[in-house]
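Q: Mind making up any chain with structure tokens?
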Amino acid sequence: MINESARPARETGPKRVEENAGAAALTLTEADLAAIDEILPHGGFGARYAEGHVPTWI
């Protein structure tokens, strides 16, 4: 049995749409990209994808 009260509330609605759309205007600098590469040197994927099934866009 799943305890529904233990699940965090999901926020949805126009506010989240605005936030997500605003992310499209985000510009990453070379320093930002270098920091991301340092943290995730092999990209932002891992065990989520089984070997041989990594999306072609990665």
Summary: Helices lie at 14-22, 30-39. The mean pLDDT is 78. The CA atoms of residues 32 and 38 lie 10 Å apart. Residues 27-58 form one domain.
